[in-house]
Design goal:
about 325 residues, three-stranded antiparallel sheet, two-stranded antiparallel ribbon, about 15% strand, disordered N terminus
Length: about 325
């Protein structure tokens, strides 16, 4: 029986929820939500027009039981709203909330990274078309204040009032399917999930962007089990996000540096953190504060078209 058979629910959760002090902060909440592969895929299909249970089941290789569970969880998390459109038999549709609709920069950034850096993708990644200029385009990360393109070297980062490593890691494990299933099924984000799909993996990539280079750096900042850190570092080197190098002063030590592929993940990190901090604020204040060095303003990300240099929005782009 599909998710449409559940009894009608009351009003969904507020689009923006304030977290209590000394709880998982906005970044941890964001990773806990987006670190589930089905969440990203269901959000993608919702933004592309899927509304009914059958729409999602026809577009994705997902069982009815898992689809039912995930749709209801997305309603509980505030990403979808559930509306009954037929009483007998009971059927319901799922509309994207504003919170869901504002995930489009994250999905566009993931699409561009996977299309550029994952040559053996399980499905052919479509081109992205910018309706405003009529050209196929790639997104460019810019500062919303001065509209200049940015990379990680242009941004100064500091912990905010609700920041800290322990509060930025989601409680409990995020969910992934086995590697065999991920590569056999179509429409997935295999290497993005190698980073976002595990709470420690996502924290380690963030640590790398914030300057962690040696094994001890990751262990000191995250307090994760040493065996887990070693396993994640090996995995990141295998997929080419990190590169192992000799320590300049100690021959028995190694350093881990972000590769061009790893550095290219930066727009995903920034758009995801921005989304999380806007939708899951804490009473204390933001978890992280970003400053654009060139213009000196608080950094807010935006995406622009590389063909016409205009800011893109969700209504102005389409896959093809």
């Amino acid at each position: 029986m599909g998710a449409g058979s559940r009894a009608a629910s009351g009003p969904g959760p507020a689009l923006t929820s304030t977290l209590k002090p000394v709880s998982t902060n906005a970044i941890g909440r964001m990773v806990g939500l987006l670190g589930d592969e089905w969440t990203l895929l269901l959000v993608r299909e919702s933004l592309l027009g899927a509304r009914r249970f059958s729409d999602f089941s026809e577009r994705l290789p997902i069982s009815n039981a898992v689809l039912t569970q995930r749709l209801l969880k997305l309603v509980d998390d505030g990403l979808l709203s559930r509306e009954v459109y037929q009483e007998r038999p009971l059927r319901a549709g799922y509309q994207p909330t504003r919170q869901c609709q504002e995930l489009w920069p994250v999905l566009v950034s993931i699409w561009h990274w996977e299309r550029t850096w994952v040559p053996e993708h399980p499905e052919k990644m479509p081109l992205m078309h910018h309706r405003t200029c009529g050209q196929d385009f790639s997104p460019v990360l810019r500062c919303a204040g001065c509209h200049q393109p940015v990379s990680q070297e242009h941004i100064d980062t500091e912990w905010g009032p609700s920041g800290g490593w322990q509060r930025s890691v989601p409680q409990g494990a995020t969910r992934r399917r086995s590697g065999t299933d991920r590569h056999r099924q179509a429409g997935l984000f295999p290497e993005t999930m190698s980073i976002l799909g595990n709470r420690w993996a996502s924290a380690m990539v963030a640590a790398a962007f914030l300057g962690a280079r040696q094994f001890g750096d990751f262990h000191t900042r995250l307090s994760a089990p040493p065996a887990l850190i070693a396993d994640r570092l090996r995995g990141f080197c295998t997929i080419g996000v990190l590169q192992r190098a000799a320590h300049p002063k100690r021959s028995d030590w190694s350093e881990y540096h972000l590769t061009p592929k790893g550095l290219a993940f930066f727009p995903i990190v920034m758009t995801a953190v921005d989304w999380g901090q806007r939708h899951f604020p804490t009473q204390e204040g933001p978890a992280m504060i970003f400053t654009h060095r060139d213009c000196g303003s608080r950094f807010t990300p935006e995406l622009a078209c590389d063909q016409c240099d205009q800011r893109v929005n969700s209504n102005g782009i389409e896959p093809r």
